[in-house]
From TrEMBL:
InterPro entries tied to this protein: RegFact_GeneExpr_CellDeath
Superkingdom of the source species: Eukaryota
Protein name stated in the entry: MULE transposase domain-containing protein
Length: 506
């Protein structure tokens, strides 16, 4: 190395800067060394072990860019895009560190670098920074939150810590053995629970899992005799499992997931097995209302086990999605697509059955009169007009079904709040977040029971009532059974009459 330094100074006329330092402790030296590394954008590493001579320990730290790249192994792995840190040459910068028996440290520091520039991407995260990240990850601080803190710490000088990525933090979790939420060990499943004699309809490659904890069972027992919502979501994870939800409506008319079913089959043999397993742990007779999607297998399997309900309703979410898909498929022009969807949507939300019948006839006339809409009109008439009582709001007014689409709300909560909008590939993580969602719903209900809660529907009714009290000057009583009420935002007049049938029923 001395010959190299002499050659650089004499032949290339480059001055080699050197300095000496003294530190009272080795820790003080380490702090100075880290500061030098940040300032020079270079790491100083040991290539060999320390040497002991004359009661002193001598250690050499060389620039991490110094040296030649030597490939190891069978070269099956492609080298990283940035290449090796080695410059395939010699960089003269180094530190000769001597520590005496009194723990004092003497440093001979060669400051000059040659053969490379200042490359921030070739620096490493310090051990202290790694430890700090690990502490945050162990406290279950989200990776996005940690990255936000890193980005916010940037002021005017870019440092290596500002280049930390999500992948770096995930690698740290593996390095520090920090387990991710919901990921279980491979030894957690230690036996094959499949029994062909008990489940003759299933094969060894089939998967069927029913989940219902004690809280869910109590909710199903208490509210399961009223309204049951059944839903199947296809392809929940990378294994292609279907995810089924049995949802009940509580006294606040809010949805509560009473059971989950995970399966790679949804036919007449597999689903009844799941429902039989549920029936063995509850004592319900759900005869009133059933809300499902368009598939018959789920509904038929439920009827086989629990009986036929008084009313079967189509989930608004699925009906609306089916209309959108077929409108896009059968109608080409965007303006006609908008018109067709507006027509069917108006039919859906109409709450007066007489007005609905008139509107339905007019809608079919509109579809048949327009060549662009005729094909969709034929589809709508064939598939939905024969069962309007299953999807129209006017036929479900007295069944206690909130048209806010409980299942859709639950799915979105799980997807965007608990799964952060990502598709979960691991089944154990999916189960973990499902049970976490159920736990939070249980506590929401406990808080509601202890502290009270005003639902959005009650809040809206109170708001309307308050507005109505302020309309006394706009309300004119014609007789004992009729009033005329002017609107506040237009010149329209509404005629309000008593409903004799409702008065007698009360």
């Amino acid at each position: 190395m001395k010959a190299l330094l002499d050659h650089v100074e004499s032949a290339h006329n480059i001055a080699i800067e050197k300095e000496t330092k003294k530190f009272d402790t080795y820790e003080a030296f380490k702090i100075w060394k880290e500061d030098v590394e940040k300032q020079t954008t270079a790491l100083y590493v040991k290539n060999t072990g320390s040497k002991f001579n004359n009661m002193k320990k001598t250690t050499y730290f060389y620039c991490h860019r110094n040296g030649f790249y030597n490939a190891r192994g069978n070269k099956k792995r492609t080298i990283k895009m940035a290449g090796s840190n080695k410059i395939n040459g010699n960089c003269p910068s180094k530190m000769k560190v001597c520590e005496d028996n009194e723990n004092q440290v003497y440093v001979e520091f060669t400051k000059t670098h040659l053969g490379h520039g200042k490359n921030l991407e070739r620096m490493q995260i310090t051990r202290e920074e790694k430890d700090e990240f690990a502490r945050k990850l162990e406290k279950k601080i989200l990776i996005d939150t940690i990255l936000d803190e890193i980005r916010d710490s940037f002021i005017d000088k870019l440092e290596r810590i500002h280049l930390v990525t999500r992948k770096d933090l995930l690698n740290l979790k593996a390095e520090y053995s920090i387990s991710s939420e919901g990921i279980m060990d491979t030894n957690d499943v230690d036996q094959n629970i499949y029994d062909e004699d008990l489940y003759p309809g299933l094969k060894a490659e089939n998967f069927l899992l029913v989940i219902m904890n004690n809280c869910q069972r109590e909710m199903l027992n208490f509210y399961g005799n009223d309204t049951i919502c059944l839903d199947f979501t296809h392809g929940m994870n990378a294994y292609g499992f279907d995810f089924a939800t049995i949802l009940v409506l509580d006294d606040k008319r809010e949805g509560f997931p009473a059971a989950f079913i995970l399966s790679n089959r949804q036919d007449s043999k597999a689903l009844p097995l799941a429902f039989v397993a549920i029936k063995e742990h509850v004592s319900i007779s759900p005869k009133r209302t059933q809300m499902t999607d368009d598939t018959k297998s789920f509904s038929n399997a439920w009827r086989t086990v629990f009986g036929v309900p008084e009313k079967r309703l189509l989930c608004t979410w699925y009906g609306d999605r089916s209309w959108r898909r077929n409108i896009s498929k059968l109608i080409k022009k965007p303006e006609n697509q908008v018109e067709a969807y507006k027509v069917v949507r108006c039919l859906l939300i109409e709450t007066d059955d007489e007005a609905f019948s008139i509107m339905l006839k007019e809608a079919l006339k509109i579809f048949s009169a327009n060549d662009e809409l005729r094909e969709f009109g034929n589809y709508f008439e064939h598939v939905y007009c024969k069962r309007t009582e299953a999807w129209a709001y006017c036929y479900r007014k007295w069944f206690g079904i909130n048209t806010n689409m409980h299942i859709e709300s639950m799915h979105r909560t799980i997807k965007y709040v608990y799964l952060q909008g990502k598709k979960v590939k691991r089944l154990d993580r999916a189960l973990f977040y499902l049970m976490k969602f159920v736990r939070d719903r249980v506590f929401d209900r406990l808080i509601c029971l202890e502290k009270g809660k005003i639902s959005s529907k009650i809040a809206q009714l109170r708001k309307r009532h308050k507005v109505g009290q302020e309309l006394t000057s706009l309300c004119i009583r014609k007789n004992e059974e009729e009033w005329s009420v002017a609107t506040t935002k237009s010149n329209e007049i509404y005629i309000v009459k008593k409903n004799p049938e409702m008065v007698h029923s009360v």
